[in-house]
Design a protein that fits this description.
Elements: H1 2-31, H2 36-40, E1 42-48, H3 50-53, H4 61-64, H5 66-74, E2 78-84, H6 102-108, E3 114-118, H7 131-146, E4 153-158, H8 177-195, E5 198-201, H9 202-206, H10 221-235
Parallel strand pairs: 1-2, 1-3, 3-4, 4-5
Helix pairs in contact: 5-10, 7-8
Amino acid sequence: MKITSIIRELYKRKMIVLLVAIVILFAILFKAGMFGDADTRIRVTCAGDSITYGSGVLKSKEIDSYPAQLQTRLGTSYLVSNFGLRNATASPNGDLPYIDSDEYKDSLESKPDVVVLMLGTNDAKRFNWDQNSYEKGLESLVKSYQDLPSKPVVYLMRSPYCFPINKSGEMEYNINEKVVYFKLAPSIEKVAEKTGVEVIDLFTITQNKEDLYTDGVHFNVEGYSVISDAVYDVIKKLDIDKTK
């Protein structure tokens, strides 16, 4: 009886070890993209500044930022990643150039099928604005994504409308309202034309909608939902099939 019990106990232990090994193997294979869901999802990379990051809904940004809401809308056949960096600029001469950041490097390594790039609000700060540097920096960023092996479709977003914080017309964060209202759009359109990408116009759809904002610059949940909807409408028109 004792020998039989010992044999049974050894058998149980071997089975447990085997099951654990199988679970670990499946986890490794899944992470490596060996299964359909991980390998065939359309990868959407959202790159940009604090509006991409989710400022305004920081406590719930994993649910309420525009990339998070976009993920919910697109569903499980897509993988939406947020590479937003607060205070980031397109200009390499700004106070926090996106091109020098870890977020940018990570976005390049995300193997994107689609890239949605939004930078400009921080470039519009009085101490940052340099139109020539902004356009060159934005163009360089777009081309760096276009040159990736995954050959993603790249979209530029026109920065949203900004509201003044007082009757004098001053904006939060030392942003120059004249740059936001009159200069960002021509620069973005110029870069879009040179690089052959489409522009998603957030300025027009957020203009005169102060109730969407938390501080005149960043959005509340409803505001980020408006951005998410605009990006969703564009992405769903794409014909990307990674199952073939």
